[in-house]
């Protein structure tokens, strides 16, 4: 499912960054900060908004940096991992935007229609947060896999097949 | 230190600080108006309980206040009198679970019209329950609350009531059930204590207190 490349330790280290930042966003921001801010929602009702704010900033950074790396003279292996990271973050951004719309829209709708607490929690939790948390767990697994690949000089086979021909790299030579 | 490393450690440190900080964050300020003994006297004969002004606040206001949707119903007593009520099945006030019934001030003629238009009738222990049409339910929601019946989910000892409300002006014992009513006319409050039963607190505007006491006097005896 993956292809081994002959890359330096320094390249491996640099290729790991998009996945490391992506994972720290998911685990520390979306789980740790989210739980902490929800715990104090009674005293600070707007604090949970910190989570998407931090997340969008991190996603924005990864997307911009990936574009900059793609136009730079970095090795093909590093570029490839930043591209994988950018692709995953773009997907995560869509998911996060949808969840934010459902949560804010659900709260507004509940206030407008005078819904009870249980119906509001059912809408926001069931339609917004629950699917988000499931995808979040899947993304953590995928992020960890990518991190492992980057640190061992590997790339997903499908990605490598699609891109090696187009962008050969001096150091990124596939090993047989 | 490159930017990625700064972001990595920055998020890590912020997360740990926010997480640790959440343990020291001040709790939600206690809402004293949610306490059953917090009865405000806005003007002579007008009281506010649970943040609702009896005779002025509507059930729409109560739904907003309690964060629960109420079930409207019309009741017909065996004597033939009609009363419109909104039932809140589960309300949490000041951390205490309870059920609340709001009696709605519907004009007598309108009550009869609602009874005629009623969708379904079922028998209850204390008479008949009529299901209202959606239009009538909306009308009831917009009318003021005449009284509130608060039924906490836990047993509360007499000592706590004495401590919080003071000694009642009068105590009436129901001949049939043996339940004792602690009456506080100045607060428009009747606390029903039935031995092992959970207490029931009934709030009405003090000016309407006599209407609440009249049937008690008829079917009970004054014990103090």
Give a quick summary of the entry.
The complex is a heterodimer of chains A (176) and B (224). With 176 residues, chain A is mainly α.
Describe this structure in words.
The complex is a heterodimer of chains A (176) and B (224). Chain A has helices at 9-39, 50-71, 76-113, 117-151, 157-163, and strands spanning 2-4, 154-156. With 176 residues, chain A is mainly alpha-helical. Chain A has one domain. With 224 residues, chain B is of the alpha+beta class. Chain B has two domains: 30-154, no CATH class; 156-224, no CATH class. Chain B is 30% helix and 35% strand. Chain B is built from six helices and 14 strands. Chain B is globular, with a radius of gyration of 23 Å. Chains A and B meet through helix 1 and helix 2 of A and helix 1 and helix 2 of B.
Strand content of chain A: under 5%
How many extended strands of chain A? 2
Beta-strand proportion of chain B: 25-35%
Weakly predicted, low-confidence segments of chain A? 166-176
- How much is the average pLDDT of chain A? 87
The strand order across the widest sheet of chain B is 7-8-4-5-6-9-13-12-11-10-14
Please tally the helical runs of chain A, counting DSSP H or I stretches of 4 or more residues: 5
Q: Major sheet of chain A, described briefly?
A: 2 strands, antiparallel
In terms of topology, how is this protein built?
The complex is a heterodimer of chains A (176) and B (224).
Chain A: E1 2-4, H1 9-39, H2 50-71, H3 76-113, H4 117-151, E2 154-156, H5 157-163
Antiparallel strand pairs in A: 1-2
Helix pairs in contact in A: 1-2, 1-3, 1-4, 2-3, 3-4
Chain B: H1 3-24, E1 39-43, E2 46-49, E3 52-53, H2 59-66, E4 71-76, E5 82-93, E6 96-104, H3 108-117, E7 120-124, E8 127-131, H4 134-142, E9 145-152, H5 158-165, E10 170-174, E11 180-184, E12 189-193, E13 200-203, H6 209-219, E14 220-222
Antiparallel strand pairs in B: 1-2, 2-3, 4-5, 4-8, 5-6, 6-9, 7-8, 9-13, 10-11, 10-14, 11-12, 12-13
């Amino acid at each position: 499912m993956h292809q081994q490349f002959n890359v330096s330790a320094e390249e491996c280290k640099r290729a790991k960054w998009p996945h490391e930042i992506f994972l720290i966003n998911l685990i520390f921001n979306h789980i740790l900060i989210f739980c902490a801010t929800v715990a104090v929602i009674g005293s600070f009702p707007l604090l949970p908004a910190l989570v998407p704010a931090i997340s969008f900033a991190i996603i924005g950074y990864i997307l911009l940096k990936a574009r900059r790396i793609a136009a730079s003279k970095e090795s093909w292996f590093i570029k490839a991992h930043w591209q994988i990271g950018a692709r995953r973050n773009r997907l995560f951004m869509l998911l996060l935007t949808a969840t934010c719309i459902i949560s804010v829209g659900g709260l507004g709708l509940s206030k407008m229609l005078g819904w009870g607490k249980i119906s509001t929690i059912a809408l926001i939790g069931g339609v917004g947060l629950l699917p988000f948390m499931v995808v979040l767990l899947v993304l953590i697994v995928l992020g960890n896999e990518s991190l492992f690949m980057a640190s061992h000089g590997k790339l997903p086979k499908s990605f490598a097949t699609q891109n090696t021909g187009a962008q050969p790299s001096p150091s990124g030579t596939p090993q047989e | 230190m490159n930017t990625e490393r700064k972001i990595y450690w920055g998020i890590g440190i912020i997360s740990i600080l926010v997480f640790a900080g959440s343990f020291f964050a001040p709790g939600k300020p206690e809402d004293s108006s949610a306490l059953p003994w917090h009865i405000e006297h806005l003007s002579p004969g007008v009281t506010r309980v649970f943040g609702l002004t009896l005779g002025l606040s509507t059930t729409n206001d109560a739904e907003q206040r309690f964060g629960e949707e109420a079930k409207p119903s019309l009741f017909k007593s065996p004597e033939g009198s009609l009363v419109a009520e909104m039932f809140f099945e589960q309300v949490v006030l000041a951390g205490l679970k309870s059920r609340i019934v709001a009696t709605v001030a519907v004009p007598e003629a309108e009550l009869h019209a609602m009874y005629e238009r009623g969708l379904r009738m079922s028998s209850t222990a204390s008479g008949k329950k009529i299901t209202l049409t959606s239009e009538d339910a909306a009308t009831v929601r917009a009318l003021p609350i005449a009284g509130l019946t608060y039924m906490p989910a836990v047993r509360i000892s007499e000592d706590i009531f004495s401590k919080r409300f003071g000694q009642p002006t009068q105590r009436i014992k129901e001949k049939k059930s043996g339940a004792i009513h602690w009456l506080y006319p100045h607060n428009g409050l009747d606390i029903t204590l039935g031995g092992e039963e959970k207490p029931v607190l009934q709030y009405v505007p003090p000016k309407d207190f006599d209407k609440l006491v009249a049937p008690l006097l008829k079917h009970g005896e004054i014990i103090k």
